[in-house]
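Example record used in the benchmark description.
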Amino acid sequence: MTRRDYVKFAKLIYNLAKDHENDPDTSCFVGCLKTGIADIFAIDNHRFNREKFYQACEQKGGKCD
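Model output (structure tokens):
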């Protein structure tokens, strides 16, 4: 996968979190989804920066760079 793929996933997670920010069940699911996706990316790429990805999931637009 490429950085652009990571950015797309970060945007997806950001949008899910924003769309359901008042729903605790969905919020928990989004957190688990974020961690699971980061685990897959880390296995796929040893240089994957998990913290940078988590921050991108919290920022509007999902910026990873």
